[in-house]
Structures are given as structure tokens and as C-alpha cells.
Design the sequence.
């Protein structure tokens, strides 16, 4: 992203400071700026995008959230849609769903996601401070002061000399080694699960099967393959003879592991990226500490099995951004909304740590007992369509739901499916306003006043395309149901945000 070179101020004030311009920080900063707020994004790296591919897959729910920002179709154009996940040779999980425009896993490099989000953040007016790192913070009742310094190697002539940033709220999206988390004194409990896994982006002479992501393991070797759609495949490979974390990666080692796991190396050649990384499973106990929030890898990390890390971070950002905007807009009850960020997203993060850990442990099973469990589990899964559908719902993020208040309508807290609206529109296009959307039958007039829902201007009022529908939905800006009624007579809550939400 472009910087602010030449700025000589040493102190800078903003409404929200976001620390870390990875995918989580870019989405969050872009949302807040699009909602009309002053946002400063501090990033240690020099201007420009990270060249690392890292995440390779964008799941359906994340695509829906990007659709609600008008950028999903552009992202889909950059990658290859995969309709199936094949686990351990025994289970095929189909991702297609009639209730989503995106019944697939989009395989595309992380930098494509970041490029789109960076462009959107820039256009929305986010102030970026590249080559600048946060070294500490202090918070009080009215705000947070961040202490900054030039990142190592940054050119003083091109780096702003800002030394502190004062913000009403700070969000740490600064990755798994988060300075913000440490400055808050927050632990990051968990375990290291693999010392050394290899990632490679390669060409293959032999096609491993179209339109699927494939994971296979035998005792002591696991390999995972997915096509990018541009002639390259992403490979993750692990073998029990783990090398030291920093040791060099040779294509020959990747070939060897893939051969052992799949019975072929598919004739792999021309590695455009080879790297080694280690896997931890950790989660911070609190996502909110006063005026400071943690999101993305700063809050949770786990193995890449299931391809959830970036997706979960983007969904954290979508959950938090409208709540922060409500707080900045002075919406009554916004404190409870801000608390609900932890209440809603911490359990999702914990579930992702658990499920990616289960896939990894099954795949890397070494003991005969583990292998027996794997065989039974995959045999069972293979024979149980409802269970496979549950796995698909988990992987895609489409079945995530948030806790609802007692007595709430059964849909409250669930994801709103995209529906056609009168006049030719559809729900996720309407959500692009960044506000709640109230969908009612034609007979329901706009509620008195514009106070329904949170945020400036209240909710957007839409009508079902289907004239037979009598029910009503109030959909949050992040695409979850805040309120619903089965008949046209009910009135949506006109009152504070806290009543709309668990
Ligand atoms: C090999 C590999 C494969 C992966 N595959 C997948 C996948 O298929 N699907 C998936 O969903 N996820 C995957 N992940 C995980 C995914 O890459 C991360 O979950 C994702 O990048 C997290 O995004 P983030 O924005 O939270 O953090 P990051 O992307 O880590 O961004 C944090 C940013 O903060 C900056 N920063 C750090 N400290 C400071 C500081 N003190 N001051 C200022 N800036 C700072 C960093 O420079 C960085 O730009 C993979 C990860 C790896 C390593």
C-alpha cells in the first residue's frame, strides 16, 4: 500500500489504529474507512504486498463476506474453484450447496486476496504507515496510545517520523507473534504440533484428478495437493523424519514424501516456491481487553489442514468492523456489541483449532492404534452422508452460527442466505451499504424513524422478490440474522444494538 512519506508529525490521532496489514487488518481497516471513520493502518513491511503465497484457499463463507463488499467476483476470476475435498483416500466431501453462490473452495494465492483488500482499503481512505512497527501500547479510559518506531532497514527519508498514535480503539492484526498481544500481557496457550512441514508450489506432469483437493497419508508421510488453476499445484508435505525448522528445502525431499503418501510424485518439477514452517495450535483467552482487540493469527493459530487460518481471520474482521463502527457512531448499547465480538468469535476460533488439529493428527498418525482410528473414522465418514455434509459446512464456514438470546427466533444468529429482492437486487448486494438490511413483505412500510438496526442511517429496507413471503429478516452487516419474524405484523426492534444480538 502507498505510504505517507514526507509526513513529519511525531504524534498522530485517529479513531481506530489497526496494526498489521495482512488480510485480517486490510479487511477491517477497509470496512471502517468505508463506514466513514478515520483509520490508520500500521505495517512493519515496506510498501507493497507480501510475496508469500501462504494461504491458498478461500472458503464459501469468506467469499460471501467479500461479496457483501463487492469484491468476490473479482477474486473468483483469479483462481480455480474446487468442488470436492478428498480426505485420506476414503472420504469425498462435496462442497456444492444450493444455498450459496459459492459452493466451492476457491484456490488462489493469499497475495491475490491481499491485493484486492489493499485496493479497497486505499480507495476508502485508510491512512497507511508502512515500514513502521508498533513497539508497545498504553490504554486508559478514553483511548489507546501506540508507540511506534521505524522498522529495521526502513529508509528514514521515506518513512514518516510519527512516534505515537492515539486512537479510540486499537485492533492487533499483527500475526502469530503479535506485539499487541504481548504488550497486553496476554498469554497464547497451546502446543507445537509439527516441527517442520514443507510447502511447495510446483508443476505436475501427471494430473492428480481434476476439481479436488486431495489429502493422503500413510504411516510417517502425509501430502496434500490442490491445483491453483494456472498450471501450478500447492503441495504440503510432512514426513516423520522431520528436518530442523530452518533447514533448506529440496524439491527431491518433497517428491519423496509425496511418493510415499500417494504412491506417485506426479512428476513434479519447476518449484516456484519452496518453504518450511512449523505448526502450533494456540488461542488467546480474551479477544477484547478494554479498548484493544485481537483478530486473525494474533488471536489464534493452527495447522493449515482444512485451510482455515486466513478465512477465520477475515471472518473475525467482518464480525468486529461493524461493531466498532457502531461504537464510534455512539450507538447506545455498543459496549455490549463490542463484548459480543469475543463471545461470538472465540468459540469459532476454538472449533477451528480443534478441527484442523484432528485432521492433522489423523493424517500424521504413526501408531497402529491411531491408524486403526483413522481407518474406522474414514470408513464411517465415507458411509455417513449427514456427517460429510457437516464436515463440508464446517470447512466452508457456511454452518457457523452465533449464540442467540433466549426466546429468539430460530434463525437469529444464523447466516443469512443470499435471497432475491424486489427490483432485481439480492441480499448480499444490498449488504454492500455496510448497514443492517431489513427484508419484509411489500405490505410492511419502512419502520417509523430510521433507527432500526445500528450504524448511521439505520437499516436499509428491502422487500422479498417472492410476493408470497410473509416473514421478515433483519440482517446484520456481517450477514447474520439479528432478528426474524414469521409474519408481517411483527415489528423489528427499533432500540439499541444490544437488543439485536446475543
Ligand atoms: C505455509 C502456510 C500455508 C497456509 N495456508 C493457508 C490456507 O490454505 N488457508 C488459510 O485460510 N490460511 C492458511 N495459512 C494461514 C494464513 O496465511 C494466515 O492465517 C493469515 O495470513 C493470517 O492473516 P493475518 O492478517 O491475521 O496475519 P498475517 O498475515 O500474519 O499479517 C500480520 C501482519 O502484521 C505485520 N506486523 C507484525 N508485527 C508488527 C508490528 N509490531 N508492527 C507493525 N506491523 C506488524 C506483519 O508484517 C504482517 O504483515 C497458511 C499459513 C502458512 C504459513
Sequence:
Amino acid at each position: 500500500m502507498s505510504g505517507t512519506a514526507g509526513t513529519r508529525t511525531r504524534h498522530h490521532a485517529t479513531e481506530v489504529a489497526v496494526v498489521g496489514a495482512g488480510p485480517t487488518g486490510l479487511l477491517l481497516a477497509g470496512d471502517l474507512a468505508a463506514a466513514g471513520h478515520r483509520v490508520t493502518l500500521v505495517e512493519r513491511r515496506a510498501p507493497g504486498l507480501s510475496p508469500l503465497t501462504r494461504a491458498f484457499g478461500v472458503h464459501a463463507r469468506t467469499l460471501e463476506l467479500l461479496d457483501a463488499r463487492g469484491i468476490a467476483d473479482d477474486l473468483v476470476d483469479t483462481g480455480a474453484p474446487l468442488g470436492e475435498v478428498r480426505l485420506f483416500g476414503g472420504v469425498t466431501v462435496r462442497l456444492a450447496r444450493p444455498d450459496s453462490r459459492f459452493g466451492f473452495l476457491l484456490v488462489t494465492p493469499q497475495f491475490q486476496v491481499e491485493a484486492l483488500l489493499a485496493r479497497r482499503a486505499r480507495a476508502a481512505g485508510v491512512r497507511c504507515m508502512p515500514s513502521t512497527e508498533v513497539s508497545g501500547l498504553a490504554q486508559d479510559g478514553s483511548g489507546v496510545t501506540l508507540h511506534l518506531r521505524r522498522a529495521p532497514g526502513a529508509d528514514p527519508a521515506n518513512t514518516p517520523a510519527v512516534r505515537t498514535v492515539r486512537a479510540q480503539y486499537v485492533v492487533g492484526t499483527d500475526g502469530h507473534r503479535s506485539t499487541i498481544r504481548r504488550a497486553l500481557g496476554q498469554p497464547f496457550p497451546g502446543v507445537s504440533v509439527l516441527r517442520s512441514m514443507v510447502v511447495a508450489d510446483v508443476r505436475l506432469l501427471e494430473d492428480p484428478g481434476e476439481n479436488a483437493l486431495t489429502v493422503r497419508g500413510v504411516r510417517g508421510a502425509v501430502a496434500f495437493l490442490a491445483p491453483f488453476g494456472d498450471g501450478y499445484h500447492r503441495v504440503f508435505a510432512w514426513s516423520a523424519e522431520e528436518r530442523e525448522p530452518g533447514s533448506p528445502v529440496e524439491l527431491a525431499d518433497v517428491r519423496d514424501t509425496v511418493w510415499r503418501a500417494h504412491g506417485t510424485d506426479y512428476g513434479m518439477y519447476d518449484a516456484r516456491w519452496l518453504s518450511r514452517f512449523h505448526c502450533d495450535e494456540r488461542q488467546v483467552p480474551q479477544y477484547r481487553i478494554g479498548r484493544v482487540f485481537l483478530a486473525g493469527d494474533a488471536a489464534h493459530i493452527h495447522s493449515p489442514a482444512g485451510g482455515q487460518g486466513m478465512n477465520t481471520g477475515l471472518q473475525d474482521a467482518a464480525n468486529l468492523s461493524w461493531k466498532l463502527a457502531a461504537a464510534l457512531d455512539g450507538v447506545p448499547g455498543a459496549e455490549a456489541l463490542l463484548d459480543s465480538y469475543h463471545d461470538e468469535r472465540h468459540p469459532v476460533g476454538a472449533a477451528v483449532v480443534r478441527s484442523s488439529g484432528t485432521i492433522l493428527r489423523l493424517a500424521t498418525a504413526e501408531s497402529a492404534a491411531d491408524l486403526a482410528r483413522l481407518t474406522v473414522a474414514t470408513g464411517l465418514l465415507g458411509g455417513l452422508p449427514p456427517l460429510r455434509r457437516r464436515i463440508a459446512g464446517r470447512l466452508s464456514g457456511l454452518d457457523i452460527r452465533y449464540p442467540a438470546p433466549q426466546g429468539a427466533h430460530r434463525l437469529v444468529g444464523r447466516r443469512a442466505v443470499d435471497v432475491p429482492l424486489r427490483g432485481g437486487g439480492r441480499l448480499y448486494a444490498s449488504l454492500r451499504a455496510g448497514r443492517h438490511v431489513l427484508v419484509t413483505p411489500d405490505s410492511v412500510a419502512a419502520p417509523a424513524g430510521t433507527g432500526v438496526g445500528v450504524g448511521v442511517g439505520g437499516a436499509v429496507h428491502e422487500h422479498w422478490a417472492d410476493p408470497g413471503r410473509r416473514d421478515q429478516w433483519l440482517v446484520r452487516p456481517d450477514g447474520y440474522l439479528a432478528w426474524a419474524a414469521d409474519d408481517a405484523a411483527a415489528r423489528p426492534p427499533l432500540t439499541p444494538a444490544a437488543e439485536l444480538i446475543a
Remarks:
- The longest strand covers residues 269-283.
- The domain at 190-282 is CATH 3.30.70.2450 (Alpha-Beta Plaits).
